[in-house]
Amino acid sequence: MGTARRSVRESLLDAAADLLVERGYRAVRMRDVADAAGVSRQTVYNEFGDKWGLARAVVVRHNERYLDGIDAVLSRHDDLYSAVVAAVTYTLEMSADDRLKKAVLTGAGGDEMLPLLTTRAEPVMFTASARIAEHALRRWPHLDRAALTEITDAAVRLTASHIMLPSGPPERLAHVIARMVTRYLDVPGPR
Question: Which residues form the HTH tetR-type domain (predicted)?
Fold first, then answer.
């Protein structure tokens, strides 16, 4: 993708993210996004197809940025248990202050975007699970790939459910999930 096209795409995604947070999905028009980014409405349609495609692209980009943070968090830990605790805590704390995620989860302006994190969450959930598992395998190559893939998916889904309906302090849940992961993979937990 050329630099100019990437710049237009990023400008459109920035504008759409801001508008989605401010107004909610239902109130945002493609014209609004185009005006905010300083391009034609047709440019928005050419880039994303329709409003759902635009919203999906906003959420996917947001997820990629979050996963960059997870990569950094995981890299700071030598043992799997503390890495999982840190990653889950990071996720829950970041989500608590995440305006876009709140807009999606609370249905501000309508609940049309909620499927991006629930019933149509493949681009977000599967990408997160796969990327976290690959990071863990690079960091701890002795882990069983199939088992790690299974438990990573379960840990991501469990963490996501607690984003939507918190049940206590993030660190408490983080330790529960870390125990689940390390026991499933039969690796040492906390000493």
Answer: 6-66
Report d(CA 149, CA 122) in Å as an integer: 15
> For residues 13 and 89, what is the distance between their CA atoms, to the nearest angstrom?
27
Is 47 inside a domain boundary?
Answer: no
Decide: helix, strand or coil at residue 113: coil
- Using alpha carbons, select from 117, 71, 69, 72 the residue that is nearest to residue 93: 69
CA dihedral 34, 37, 43, 47 (to 10 degrees): -110
Residue linked to tokens 């919203």 = 55
* 3-state SS record for 130-187: HHHHHHHHHHCCCCCHHHHHHHHHHHHHHHHHHHHCCCCCHHHHHHHHHHHHHHHHCC
| Distance in angstroms (rounded) separating the CA atoms of residues 24 and 111 | 9
Q: Provide CB contacts within 8 A for 117, sequence distance 6+.
A: 59, 101, 104, 105, 124, 160, 164
Domain count for the chain, please give it: 1
Is the pLDDT score of 97 beyond 90?
no
How do residues 55-92 score in pLDDT, each as one tens digit? 889 988 988 998 999 999 999 999 999 999 999 999 99
This prediction has a pTM of 0.82
124 located within any domain: yes
CA distance 165 to 59: 20
